[in-house]
Design brief:
about 140 residues, globular
């Protein structure tokens, strides 16, 4: 809901909206075969460090998918993921930053299909939790 308001406001004012998600280099600890969004919080095999690393990977995948969707709409809103320290992000979107510089992230964090899958699953969980049909 907030995103739509940002897109509207940016279009009306001509001022670019910016979204910054804080992540961590620990995202690179997650291996492709162990990234299971639906099992992340399973109490039977919960591991705090693993859950944290997966949540940071999820932050980056979310940023990349949202950036793709915003660009497809020609929205004047950028979204980036940063390892602590906020860099200048004007007209930059869908990137990962470490130590205030654009940086490389893991190949899994760059996987567009994983980003789309995570985005859809997250959206479904949120709408289910809110008791609303998906838009």
């Amino acid at each position: 809901m907030l995103l739509e308001k940002m897109v509207e406001t940016a279009a009306k004012t001509g001022i670019q909206g910016r979204i910054i998600n804080v992540t961590s280099v620990i995202h690179s600890w997650v291996k492709r075969d162990s990234f299971r969004f639906n099992q992340m919080l399973n109490p039977k095999n919960y591991n705090g460090t693993r859950a944290y690393a997966q949540s940071k990977l999820a932050n980056i995948l979310h940023v990349k998918e949202m950036a793709r969707q915003l660009q497809a709409r020609n929205a004047r809103v950028t979204i980036n993921a940063v390892h602590p320290g906020i860099p200048t992000t004007r007209r930059v979107t869908g990137k990962y930053f470490a130590d205030c510089n654009e940086s490389s992230c893991s190949s899994l964090a760059n996987d567009e299909s994983e980003a789309q899958k995570l985005f859809k699953q997250t959206r479904a969980v949120i709408y289910k939790r809110l008791g609303q049909p998906e838009a």
